[in-house]
Amino acid sequence: MAVEGVRGHGGVRGRVRRSVVLEDVEESVTVEVVEGGDAFVAAVHGDVDVDNFRRVREVLFTCLNRGAPALVVDLDDVGFFGSMGIAVLVEARQRADVLDVGFAVVAGRRAVARPIRVADMEELLGLHRTLDEALAAVRGGGSDGFSWWSS
C-alpha cells in the first residue's frame, strides 16, 4: 500500500487536516480521503467489484472508527459498481448509524446510481447527485432523517 501526498479539498467546510491517497498497485481502485472540520469525504476512483470491495470497506470503516463527524462517499469517478459495492455502502451506513454519524453517497454517474436505485437503496444510503448536495445533507443533521434501524 502506498500513501501519498497531502491535499486540500474546496468542497469540505472547515479546516482540512489532511488528505491521504490510499491505493494498492494490484487493485483497480483508489480511495482519497479528505478530512474536513465537519465531514470526511472518501472519493473512490476506479471500479468497485468482487476483487477489491474489501479495500473500499477498509477505508470507509477506518474513517468511521477514527471519529468522522460525517462521512460522504463520493463515487463520481467509479466506472463499475457491482453488488459488493452496494453491500459495502450498506455496511458503512449501518456502522455510521451505530456511531450517530451523518452518512451520504454521491453518485452522479448512471453506472453507479442505477444499481443503487435498482436495489432500492437510494433512500437508505442517502444518495445525492453532487458532492455539494451530499455535504449539505450531512451538515443538516444526517442523511435525510432515514435510519437503518427504523426501516
Automatic annotation (TrEMBL):
InterPro entries: Anti-sigma_ant, STAS_dom, STAS_dom_sf. One of its GO terms (molecular function) is anti-sigma factor antagonist activity. SUPFAM superfamilies: SpoIIaa-like. Residues 29-138 form the STAS domain. Coiled coil: none annotated. Gene3D superfamilies: STAS domain. Pfam families: STAS. Belongs to the anti-sigma-factor antagonist family. NCBIfam families: ant_ant_sig. This is Anti-sigma factor antagonist. It comes from Saccharothrix syringae (Nocardiopsis syringae). The lineage of its organism: Bacteria, Bacillati, Actinomycetota, Actinomycetes, Pseudonocardiales.
